[in-house]
Amino acid sequence: MFCYQCEQTAGGTCCTKVGVCGKNEDVASLQDALIIGLKGVAAYAFHAGELGYRDEKVDAFMHDALFTTLTNVNFDLENHVAKVLQCGEMNLRAMELLDKANVERFGSPEPATVSTGFKPGPAVLITGHDLLDLYELLQQAEAQGVNVYTHGEMLPAHAYPELRKFKNLVGHYGTAWQNQKKEFEEFPGAILGTTNCVLLPKESYKDRMFTCGIARLPGVTHVENRDFSAVIAKAQEVQPLPEKQGGTLTTGFHHNFVLSIADKVIAAVKAGKIRHIFLVGGCEGAKSSRSYYTELVKQIPDDCLVITLGCGKYRFNYMDLGDIDGIPRLLDMGQCNNAYSAIQVAVALAGAFNCGVNDLPLSLVLSWFEQKAVSILFTLLHLGVKNIRIGPSAPAFLTPNVLGVIQQNYGLKLITTPEQDLKDMLA
C-alpha cells in the first residue's frame, strides 16, 4: 500500500504495510480503485454536462464515494467492493447520458470513410474528446476558409451528421495520444487540445498550440469561452498544408446503426458465417508489449468480427479486414465512452439468441492505460461480464488479494500471447 492521507503517516511520509489508522492494504487498494474509477465517471459526466445533461444519482454517488475513501471513515473490505461495482453502474449511467447528449445534439452516428491525406490550405488540428469544441471550431473556421483535421479520439466525430455537414471537416491526421510530439511537430498548421490526453509540447510547435476547456499546458495559449479566433488566425499565419494523398479510415458503427442491421448479423451467426465476435479496444500506450493487440487482430480468422473503440484501435484500424456478407469485419464504434454502444449490441444479441451475454460467441480483450478504461472495466464487472482479458499488465493499484477476488468471481485474465489467447477464446 501507499497511503499518505493524514499527518500521522509512518515516518511522516507514507504508510506502506498497514495504516496507522488500522487500514489494511486491501482496503487501501479498493479506495485507490474507487478514486481512479471516479475520475472516469467524472470525465463522461462533465462532457454530458456541457451539453446540458445531468444525472442526480451520478452526482450523489460522486460525493458518497469520495467521502468513503477518507481516512477513518470506512474500513469494511466487502463494502468497498460493493462501492467499486456501484462505480461501474454509475459509469454506465454517465456513458448512457453522454451518448444521449451527443446523439441529440449532433445526430446519430453512421459509418463514415475518412481521408488521411491533406487538402491544400490553412488548417487546424484538433485532438481530445470534446465534440462541442469541435462543432464551435468548425463553425468559426468555416467562415474564414480554414480546414479542420481530427486527431486521436476525435476520429469518431466524422460519423455524426451535424459535424460531417461542415465542408471544412476534411480529414484525420495522426494516431494515438502518445505519438503527439512527433505528429504535432510534423503538422504545419495550428493545433488545438481539448479535454484530456494532451502532452507537454515541444518548443518546435508550442507557439502553434492552443488549449481550451479543462485542458491547459504551461506556455500554451488557453482559449476562453470557445472563441477560437486566435487559433484560426494562427492557422492563417503559418505555412498552409500542401496537397497530400493519403489512405482512409472507417468509423461510426454506433449501436443505433449496428442494431439496424442486427438481422443480417444474427442471420450470419446462425448460418455459421460469423463464428465469433471479438471486442478489442481500450487505451493506447507506448509499451512494446502492446504489439500484442496488432498481432491478435492479424490472426483473428476471416469468419470473425472485430469490434473496437477508444484509441487502442490505432494498433490495427488501418487494416483492411474485408467483410462477411456485406458486414465489415472491423467495426469502430468510436471513443472510449462508446463502450456503451458495445454493451447495447451485446445485450441485444443476447436477447436475440435468448441467452446471457456470457453465453454469446463474444470475447473481450481490453487494453488499459488510464482512469476511463478502469471505470469501463468496473462497468463490465457490474454487469456480470466474465472472462475479460486485460493488458498489457495488471493495474498496479490492485493488491494480489483484490485482483484474486476479481479473478475468482469474474474470471478476469491477463493477456498472454496472441496465439494462446486466440486458441483459448475460440475453444
Physical arrangement of strands within the biggest beta sheet: 4-3-2-5-6-7
Mean pLDDT: 96
Radius of gyration: 22 Å
Tell me, what is the CATH class of the largest domain? Answer: Alpha Beta
Strand content: 5-15%
Count structural domains: 3
Q: At the third CATH level, what is the topology name of the largest domain?
A: Rossmann fold
Helix content: 40-55%
Q: What is the number of E strands?
A: 16
GO cellular component, one term: cytoplasm
GO molecular function, one term: 4 iron, 4 sulfur cluster binding
Function: Catalyzes the reduction of hydroxylamine to form NH(3) and H(2)O.
Enzyme class: oxidoreductase
Explained architecture:
This protein is of the alpha/beta class. Helix content is 41%, strand content 15%. It folds into three domains: 10-106, Substrate Binding Domain Of Dnak, Chain:A, Domain 2 (Up-down Bundle), CATH 1.20.1270.20; 112-237, Rossmann fold; 260-426, Rossmann fold (3-Layer(aba) Sandwich). The chain has 15 helices and 16 strands. Strands 4-3-2-5-6-7 form a six-stranded parallel sheet, covered by helices on one side. The protein is globular. The two termini are 38 Å apart. Belongs to the HCP family.
Write the topology of this structure:
Layout: H1 25-50, H2 56-68, H3 77-106, E1 112-115, E2 123-127, H4 131-143, E3 147-150, H5 161-164, E4 169-172, H6 180-186, E5 190-194, H7 203-206, E6 209-212, E7 221-223, H8 229-237, E8 248-251, H9 255-260, H10 262-270, E9 276-282, H11 291-299, E10 304-308, E11 323-324, E12 327-328, E13 330-332, H12 339-352, E14 362-367, H13 371-382, E15 389-391, H14 400-410, E16 413-414, H15 418-426
Parallel strand pairs: 2-3, 2-5, 3-4, 5-6, 6-7, 9-10, 9-14, 10-13, 14-15, 15-16
Antiparallel strand pairs: 1-8, 11-12
Helix pairs in contact: 1-2, 1-3, 1-13, 2-3, 3-13
